[in-house]
Write a structure and sequence with these properties.
Radius of gyration: 20 Å
CATH topology of the largest domain: Isopropylmalate Dehydrogenase
Number of helices: 12
CATH architecture of the largest domain: 3-Layer(aba) Sandwich
Strand order of the largest sheet: 2-1-3-12-11-4-5-10-8-9
Number of strands: 12
Strand content: 15-25%
Bound molecules: 3-isopropylmalic acid, manganese (II) ion
Number of domains: 2
CATH class of the largest domain: Alpha Beta
Distance between the termini: 19 Å
Helix content: 40-55%
Structural class: alpha/beta
Order of helices and strands: EHEHHEHEHEEEHEHEHEHEEHHH
Length: 357
């Protein structure tokens, strides 16, 4: 197979982790007789530094022309000034919107070898296997917003959550299809006791499930209650679908179940065109350039890329198996060990993965 893969390293540890995932993809291509062409493009803070725009048109064009995109992370204290004209995060939001990537898949899987790295007790987290579907191009992050001066010295700001029937239906359908091939349980999370927009989610979702997915066990859970249940009974969830902001928050919370944000990949998909793959973690500016970042989330994101955008299931499984093998052999990056315990760096852990492939 021939495929063109766009790398968007971004900021902080982004370049370090995408660099390692690229090594893994190159080895897989070589082993399985594929040709992957890579090109790297700026996004986020680095793109602001280069030309004032967190998502240059040339990056959008390259993404559109590609088969799949692998992103590192964007943002950092350097670009955090609340008064700045633009922000790195705007680049990420825009690329999602430009490519129509409305579904963000975030698998939360506990690796047996890492259960003790979780801040939660083994008997609670062991066996957790949740697939989140976070709506990614609507809601509070994209609705009308603004700031106005209401009187001298008093400003007022607003952000609005807007969803239409079709936006809700397509993400719930995608989640339901996934549930069908898993443990057949779908949980829809909202705040319908307060928010009008959530009541639309509830109606649209219930109608769709009744019409097309009556074989699934379907439940609705309020987001505040979900925040609690995720920590008290994570193994009872299979597929979870929710709006943009709730999904953003709940998946960061859920990332603690497996022990480290450094292990979790995600895929952002639309109804056609290239998918975008990235680790869930951010740019971690505090450890950038130190060679200690955990590249495994990005390497696992590369596996998702092979599976979902290139249809290379076997190759994806080979990467995932290699990561498990490395963990089983006891190799750990700093984020996965308790203070003072031995760990290996970004490049070394990747060397072990390459050896296991
Ligand atoms: C994420 C990130 C982004 C988001 C930020 C960086 C815009 O937190 O991918 O979860 O909120 O979607
Ligand atoms: Mn987030």
């Amino acid at each position: 197979m021939q495929a063109s893969i766009v790398l968007l390293p971004g900021d902080g540890i982004g370049p370090e982790v995408t660099g390692q995932a690229e090594r893994v993809l190159k080895l897989v291509a070589e082993k399985f007789g594929h040709t992957f062409r890579f090109s790297s493009h700026p996004i986020g803070g680095i793109a602001i530094d280069n030309g004032g725009d967190p998502l240059p048109q040339s990056t959008i064009d390259a993404c559109r022309a590609s088969d799949a995109i692998l992103l590192g992370a964007v943002g950092g204290p350097k670009w955090d000034d609340p008064k700045a004209k633009t922000r790195p995060e705007a680049g990420l939001l825009k690329i999602r919107k430009e490519l129509g990537l409305f579904a963000n898949l975030r698998p939360i899987i506990t690796f047996p070898e890492l259960v003790d790295a979780s801040p939660l007790r083994r008997e609670i987290v062991e066996g957790t296997d949740i697939l989140f579907f976070r709506e990614l191009t609507g809601g509070l992050y994209f609705g009308p917003s603004g700031t106005e001066q209401v009187s001298p010295g008093i400003e007022r700001s607003y952000s609005t959550a807007v969803y239409s029937t079709d936006e809700i239906e397509r993400i719930v359908r995608m989640a339901a299809v996934a549930a069908r091939s898993r443990r057949k349980k779908l949980t829809m999370v909202d705040k319908a006791n307060v928010l009008e927009v959530s009541r639309l989610w509830r109606r649209v979702s219930a109608a769709l499930i009744e019409k097309e997915f009556s074989d699934l066990t379907y439940e609705v859970v309020l987001v505040d209650s979900m925040a609690m249940h995720l920590l008290s009974r994570p193994t009872t969830f299979d597929v979870v679908v929710t709006s943009n902001m709730f999904g953003d928050i709940l998946t960061d919370e859920a990332s603690m179940l497996p022990g480290s944000l450094g292990m979790l990949p995600s895929a952002s998909l639309g109804s056609s065109g290239p998918g975008l793959y990235e680790p869930i973690h951010g740019s971690a500016p505090d450890i950038a350039g130190k060679g200690i970042a955990n590249p495994l989330a990005t390497i696992l994101a590369a596996a998702m890329l092979l599976r979902h955008s290139l249809g290379l299931e076997k190759e994806a499984e080979v990467i995932e198996a290699a990561v498990r093998k490395v963990l089983a052999a006891g190799h750990r990056t700093a984020d996965l060990v308790r203070k003072g315990q031995p760990s290996v760096g970004t490049i070394s852990i990747t060397d072990y993965v390459l050896a296991a492939i």
